[in-house]
Design a protein that fits this description.
single chain, mainly alpha, 77% helix, rod-shaped
Length: 61
């Protein structure tokens, strides 16, 4: 049954949920950024110490 002069309005529940999920998504992004930065720094540190150790052993007769 259809009623006359009834306007159906759009459901904006997703628009209302965005402010709730936005901080969570931002937090995950920051955590991923920090994890990737730490892994790169660890890799650089590991590569730097290995090359420094090989340089020292080559100089010793």
């Amino acid at each position: 049954m259809r009623q006359e002069n009834v306007d159906l309005l759009a459901d904006h529940s997703i628009l209302l949920a965005i402010p709730a999920f936005l901080p969570a998504v931002a937090l995950v992004g920051v955590m991923l950024f920090i994890a990737m930065r730490d892994r790169r720094a660890e890799k650089r540190e590991k590569d730097g110490t290995e090359s420094a150790q090989t340089d020292r052993t080559e100089e010793i007769p």
